[in-house]
Amino acid sequence: MSDPMRNAGVTARPSPQAAGNSHRVSAWMLTACGVWLVGLGFYFIVLRPPLLPEDPRFMGTTLEQIRTSVPGLEAWLQKVFTVMGGFMAGAGVLTVFVATVAMPLRLKGVPWAVGFSGVLTVLLMSATNFALQSDFRWLLLLPALVWFAGLVVYLANHGATSVGHDRGHGGVD
After folding, report:
1. What's the gap between Cα 160 and its chain centre?
2. Cα–Cα distance measured from residue 130 to residue 144, given in angstroms and rounded to the nearest whole number
3. Is the CB of residue 117 less than 8 Å from the CB of residue 95?
4. How many other C-beta atoms are found inside a 10 Å radius of the C-beta of residue 67?
């Protein structure tokens, strides 16, 4: 028995062109997040002061009291933020690589890697800033939402252009 919808060219999967556009959208979204992470890393390395005005406010004290009580804190925090910024920038470089190389190839494990790295970077940072009642919490929610949307778009079309190579040897999904 023939299926009239299939004979008419109607399928449940998007066309290769539509799937390709979705792949480009998801790759662009994750590339943007990666570039943002690199920029944020450089901000932490070069520009971020050791204590923002919101920090003493969260601790229920003043900057002067902190400086008096813990005289070396700001110099130490500058070193901590330099290391943190380097890790942020490094995560951003890897995110750009995954978005521009691994995602278009539909490599096995890409959704897991993108999902876990998003949770451990932008989502954790955003959630922590909400917990701290940071002045920047709403701004820092944006990268987490873009990351999540990029992953959702990628997953929505995950099977649309899959190639059934041997998955055990680095094949594509």
Report:
1. 23
2. 12
3. yes
4. 14
What is the value of pTM for the model shown?
A: 0.76
Question: 64: burial class by Cβ within 10 Å (0-12, 13-18, 19+)?
Answer: exposed
Nearest-angstrom CA–CA distance, 153 and 138: 23
Cα atoms in the 13 Å half-sphere on the side-chain side of 10 = 4
Distance CA 94, CA 99 (A): 9
Using DSSP, state whether 172 is helix, strand or coil. strand
Distance CA 74, CA 66 (A): 9
| Closest to 117 measured CA to CA, from 81, 137, 143, 78 | 143
Matching residue, tokens 């390709």: 20
The segments of the chain whose pLDDT lies below 50 read 4-16, 18, 160-169, 172-173
